Amino acid sequence: MKQRGPGGDRPLSRRPGAGGAGRRSEPAPARRKIDKASANDQALDSIIAADKREALKLAPVSRETEDRLDRYIALLREWQAKTNLVAPSTLPNLWTRHIADSLQLVDLASTARRWADLGSGGGFPGVVLACAMAGRPGASVHLVERIAKKAAFLREAIRVTTSPGVVHLAEIGDNVDRITGPVDCVTARALAPLHQLIGFAEPLMRQGAKALFLKGQDVEAELTEAAKYWNIRPQLHQSRTGDGWVVELTSVERRG
Ligand SMILES: C[S@@+](CC[C@H](N)C(=O)[O-])C[C@H]1O[C@@H](n2cnc3c(N)ncnc32)[C@H](O)[C@@H]1O
């Protein structure tokens, strides 16, 4: 029986580009697209691998933690295709920009085992901290996020990394004082201006938590604003991964 090309009655072997004997065929457009996409994926893979080497120089981790972080990044890249978890422009620098940025907090609270990360989004710093805390006795990382899709991603990330995270799909204001048991350290990145972050974290800080907030270059202006509402004695740590700062607070008191 003769094969028919789609939408016509000419034999397939006679279609233009079908590659008759002695004639070099051009790849069909769909195939060309796939080849280009996979070349792009491979280029991105090697950029990310180089960035990972840089990141692990800035923030070294154990082999076990690295394995967990690899699984997390693989999942994030898979989900990123359908859900915006990080700014697409930061994908080549996932490890330095997001992973190392988050890991630097571990050294600033070396005895902390129980953490709460507010507004976790795609998991920075919360999932990274959970990966780093895995295997430590008594470790837990609470991740608070109000968008259901992101909370679903965070749950999956905690599952695939087998790390001690607890995801709360909730508004911070409604949830933060319902986190059971005391927390040693409360964190947030790219969530809100400092004076609001302090308001979010205050219930946990009253119970003894210290706060580590990842902030950008305009930290001085945010501190000036925060000082209108709060008595604070901030300690500033220059970020290991860029121009930003980590603001450390061990106590806060509402003014007047
Ligand atoms: C800009 S993203 C930053 C995410 C992550 N911390 C990071 O640095 O990549 C802020 C996240 O906080 C969440 N968020 C903002 N306000 C919140 C609130 N009041 N309660 C819970 N989640 C909140 C948003 O849904 C979003 O996912």
TrEMBL record:
Enzyme Commission number, as recorded: 2.1.1.170
Binding site for S-adenosyl-L-methionine: 119, 124, 189
Region spans: Disordered: 1-40
Cellular compartments annotated: Cytoplasm
Molecular-function GO term, any one: rRNA (guanine-N7-)-methyltransferase activity
Keyword line: Cytoplasm, Methyltransferase, rRNA processing, S-adenosyl-L-methionine, Transferase
Enzyme class: transferase
Listed InterPro entries: rRNA_ssu_MeTfrase_G, SAM-dependent_MTases_sf
Main subcellular location: cytoplasm
Top-level taxon of the source organism: Bacteria
GO cellular component: cytosol
Catalysed conversion reaction: guanosine(527) in 16S rRNA + S-adenosyl-L-methionine = N(7)-methylguanosine(527) in 16S rRNA + S-adenosyl-L-homocysteine
Role of this protein: Specifically methylates the N7 position of guanine in position 527 of 16S rRNA.
Family to which this protein belongs: Belongs to the methyltransferase superfamily. RNA methyltransferase RsmG family.
Name listed for the protein in its UniProt record: Ribosomal RNA small subunit methyltransferase G
Organism: Bradyrhizobium sacchari
